[in-house]
Design a protein that fits this description.
This protein has helices at residues 46-51, 61-66, 70-75, 79-83, 95-100, 127-136, 155-176, 194-207, 223-233, 251-258, 269-275, 307-311, 314-322, 326-352, 356-369; strands spanning 5-12, 15-22, 25-29, 31-34, 57-60, 89-92, 105-107, 112-115, 122-125, 141-143, 183-188, 211-214, 243-245, 264-267, 278-281, 284-287. It is α/β, with parallel strands linked by helices. Strands 4-14-13-12-11-10-6-5 form an 8-stranded parallel β-sheet. It has a 3-stranded antiparallel β-sheet with strand order 1-2-3.
């Protein structure tokens, strides 16, 4: 019997509070998944990631297929043992790379043939091979292979990619073969077209999945377009299955997604921003590269529950960023991941108390007020 289940505990408008139970632990939703593309969340130890409040990580099929190879990871005990992360892992199918590496791939009905961005070697990724790789990695939540296209795009191109993704969804479901202790998510495509999104959702529901992702957003469209698509499509997704907005995003995107019924998010942004000197706080984003911080003895936020926000001066963090010291990337990545978890944790509490709208307004007001004044 399948042992991955979803329980919806509370709603507040469209916002949802739930829990995904897996053999490797529970995932409290709304959830943010830090991205461990190649088996590591950059500049972070796994236990540090867990201490931020993360219940689940994301790994990437395409990148792990190339290095170190799925068969090698399987021979070494699976991705959890390989990277020493004993909680759930969701693996992306490689579909995003169909778009992002468009100059290095050939797309057919069968699948995608990639030229490795590392050494130019050829690799084929079909729906069946994607499921096989994710199974070898010992993923807890497996994604169907899809075709993700950039926006804006012509309607005919969005329709072609959506229909191909549906056919690949059917093949992914057959290849998955109702494995115990794992879940398979389908991915809604269709660009910014309500009609195509609706057809995609209907097709996926007829196939039947353990969860439903909204793909093909945060790929060049403005935020209002993303929010419009979510307003239109989330009511068409099953209420008893988790909903995952792929590759999103910044804190305001996440708040907007939660308010529109999304349960799961992932993005490289918080760790990437940290490596480039940007830190997320209740004041909004702070750019520690700026010279205004070089003589500032104050911490990032002395009222933060995160020790790293209180421990070092802005002057020291500015110094680390400007000298490109590894410690700077480590500290700021931790602060950002912790803030993201604080954000979704606050949303969970607010939904339980039927005050999500107020929580979102207060959070946005804090960002709008901006950072502390220069001393």
């Amino acid at each position: 019997m399948k042992q991955v289940t979803f329980t919806l505990a509370a709603t507040d408008g469209a916002a949802r509070r739930g829990r995904i139970d897996t053999p490797r632990g529970a995932i409290e939703t709304p959830a943010f998944m830090p991205v461990g593309t190649v088996g590591t969340v950059k500049a972070m130890y796994p236990d540090q990631v867990r201490e931020t409040g993360a219940d689940i990580l994301l790994g990437n099929t395409y990148h792990l297929m190339l290095r170190p190879g799925a068969e090698r990871v399987a021979a070494l005990g699976g991705l959890h043992q390989f990277m020493d992360w004993q909680r759930p892992i969701l693996t992306d199918s490689g579909g995003f790379q169909v778009m992002s590496l468009a100059q290095l791939r050939k797309l057919t009905e069968r699948g995608v043939t990639f030229k490795s961005h590392i050494d130019g070697s050829a690799h084929e990724l079909t729906p069946e091979r994607s499921i096989e790789i994710q199974t070898l990695l010992d993923s807890d939540i497996i994604m169907q292979l899809d075709e993700c296209i950039a926006l804006p795009a012509e309607h005919k191109e969005m329709e072609r990619a959506m229909e191909l993704s549906l056919r690949w969804a059917d093949r992914s479901k057959s290849a998955f073969n109702n494995q115990a202790n794992r879940a398979l998510f389908g991915i809604v495509q269709g660009g910014d077209s309500p009609e195509l999104r609706s057809r995609s959702a209907a097709g996926l529901k007829s196939i039947g999945f353990d969860g439903y992702a909204v793909g093909g957003l945060a790929v060049g469209e403005p935020q209002e377009t993303m929010f419009r698509v979510l307003d239109e499509i989330t009511p068409e997704l099953p209420t008893d299955r988790p909903r995952y907005l792929m590759g999103v995003g910044k804190p305001d995107d996440i708040l907007g997604g939660i308010g529109r019924g999304i349960d799961m998010f992932d993005c490289v942004h918080p760790t990437r921003a940290g490596r480039h000197g940007h830190v997320y706080t209740r004041f909004g984003v702070i750019n520690l590269k700026n010279a205004r911080h070089k003589d500032d003895p104050r911490p990032i936020d002395e009222q933060s529950p995160n020790l790293n926000c209180r421990r070092w001066s802005r002057a020291y963090l500015h110094h680390l960023v400007r000298t490109e010291e590894i410690l700077g990337a480590m500290i700021l990545s931790q602060i950002n991941l912790a803030y993201y978890q604080e954000l979704v944790g606050g949303a969970r509490t607010a939904i339980e108390a039927s005050r999500f709208t107020g929580f979102a307004a207060e959070t946005r007001a804090g960002w709008a007020a901006g950072d502390l004044p220069v001393i």
